[in-house]
Amino acid sequence: MILSSLKGNSKKTIRIIIGAAIFIIACFVVQYFLFRPPSFDEVMRQSAIESGKNCPILVSQQMKLDKVVAMPDNVFSYDYTLLNFEKSQVNEDTLKKYVEPCIINEVKTNPDMKNLRESRVTFAYSFMDKNGELVLKLLITPDNYVHL
């Protein structure tokens, strides 16, 4: 009789331990999926949405920013339109010579880009002519803005 009552208590104890273990695992799973910090991809997407919410926006009399997009592989993309030029009127090398140093300086110094710099994001800048034809695409990689 005592032996059968110990078996019943042992089963009850085992059930309690298993139930507690399942509860603890469930708590960790819920915390992981509901309360974990956002992934870097999500941070980039939100940053792109925030940066691009006023697009298209006139940057100068010659250029407008059409959109900002977070791309796969840590690429942050900016698409611009050269408002008064056709591709045949633009010398790609001259445009690159004047625009690239300004962009690199902006990436290096803009406090709003700090998290992106720290995450070693590649910045892609596309410049289209007034007809939507690609004139120039620049990739600013961490090698361009990080000093070792």
How many separate helices? Answer: 5
Strand order of the largest sheet: 1-2-3-4-5
- At CATH level 3, the topology of the largest domain is GMP Synthetase, Chain A, domain 3
Task: State the helicity in percent bands.
Answer: 40-55%
The CATH class of the largest domain is identified as Alpha Beta
Largest sheet: number of strands, sense, barrel closure: 5 strands, mixed
User: How many distinct beta strands?
Assistant: 5
Instruction: Summarize the helix and strand pattern as letters.
Output: HHEEEHHEEH
- The percentage of residues in β strands lies in 15-25%
Level-2 CATH architecture of the largest domain: 2-Layer Sandwich
- The whole-number mean of residue pLDDT values reads 82
What does this structure look like?
This protein is α+β, with helices and mostly antiparallel strands and 148 residues long. It has five helices and five strands, in the order H-H-E-E-E-H-H-E-E-H. A five-stranded mixed sheet has the order 1-2-3-4-5.
Q: Strands, helices and their partners?
A:
Blueprint: H1 2-35, H2 40-52, E1 57-58, E2 63-71, E3 75-82, H3 92-109, H4 114-118, E4 122-128, E5 134-140, H5 142-145
Parallel strand pairs: 3-4
Antiparallel strand pairs: 1-2, 2-3, 4-5
Throw out a few tags for this protein.
148 residues, alpha+beta, 2 domains, GMP Synthetase, Chain A, domain 3
